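Long-time lurker, first post. I've been practising inverse folding by hand and with some scripts of my own, and I keep getting stuck on stretches where the structure tokens seem ambiguous. Below is the full token string for one chain I'm working on. Before anyone asks, I'm not after the true native sequence, just a reasonable design that respects the backbone. If someone could post their per-position residues I'd love to compare against what I wrote down in my notebook.
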């Protein structure tokens, strides 16, 4: 299927994670489709990723940005517009489940909101004029924590709940332009960060089995590539009449009644 993403300017936050992360996988998938990724991230890995793409003849841009800083976000949007003159898609992908719970400080709670929620608002705010010009779209990356809770992560849960609310709100705001706004919701995905977290536990193999057996479809984790493939579809013209939606890419983790499934789930 031709998704017609060739030469589309796609702003993506949080795409300079380690190799195999969801953001980095999205970045590579965008490049494969011929899109022009503009990466907004604080990690210097972004320079290397963009240089590697450019060495393959793929246009890309990295703007090093601490997305907790409003001024830096504004600067990033200005730099992208200065180079390309337009923006077709915004993918808000930043997300860190930082474990700031009820015992956390006010400062840590607010920092988590700035990273996981406020950055989404500011990137949308500063790219919106160009998105309206291009009749583009916004895709927000959410988490099952907003729908199920997790425990011990009040700030992240609040932020991701806000992301889903903003998705619907912006879809309403922008319906007449028309700029589509959607969200994907991720549950358990096998990433390097997930693997590293498991290694910190006393019983990583047992913990992994207990998680995987609760995923209804095939009892396996969602791969970053499966998430990236859904992202590509939703930002493309093939999804031209989809807006205001929360689309779960989770193997049925959130919605299916596991008690009704065969086996030991």
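-- Answer (accepted) --
I ran through it position by position. Result:
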């Amino acid at each position: 299927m031709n998704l017609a993403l060739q030469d589309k300017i796609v702003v993506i936050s949080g795409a300079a994670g380690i190799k195999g992360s969801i953001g980095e996988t999205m970045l590579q998938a965008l490049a494969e489709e011929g899109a022009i990724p503009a990466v907004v991230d604080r990690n210097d890995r972004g320079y290397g990723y963009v240089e590697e793409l450019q060495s393959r003849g793929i246009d890309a841009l990295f703007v090093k940005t601490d997305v907790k800083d409003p001024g830096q976000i504004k600067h990033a949007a200005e730099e992208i517009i200065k180079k390309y003159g337009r923006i077709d898609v915004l993918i808000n992908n930043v997300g860190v489940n930082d474990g700031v719970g009820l015992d956390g400080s006010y400062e840590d709670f607010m920092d988590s909101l700035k990273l996981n929620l406020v950055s989404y608002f500011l990137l949308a705010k500063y790219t919106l004029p160009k998105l309206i010009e291009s009749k583009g779209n916004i895709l927000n990356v959410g988490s099952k924590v907003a729908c199920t809770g997790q425990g011990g992560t009040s700030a992240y849960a609040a932020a991701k709940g806000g992301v889903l609310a903003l998705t619907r709100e912006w879809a309403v705001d922008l319906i007449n332009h028309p700029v589509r706004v959607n969200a994907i919701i991720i549950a358990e995905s096998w990433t390097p960060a997930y693997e590293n977290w498991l290694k910190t536990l006393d019983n990583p193999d047992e913990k992994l089995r207990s998680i995987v057996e609760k995923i209804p479809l095939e009892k396996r984790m969602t791969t970053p590539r499966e998430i990236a493939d859904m992202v590509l579809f939703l930002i493309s013209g093939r999804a031209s009449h989809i807006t205001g939606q929360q689309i779960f890419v989770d193997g049925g983790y959130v919605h299916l009644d596991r008690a009704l499934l065969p086996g030991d789930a």
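A couple of notes from the structure itself: The chain has a mean pLDDT of 95. DSSP finds nine helices and seven strands in the chain. Happy to go over any region you disagree with.
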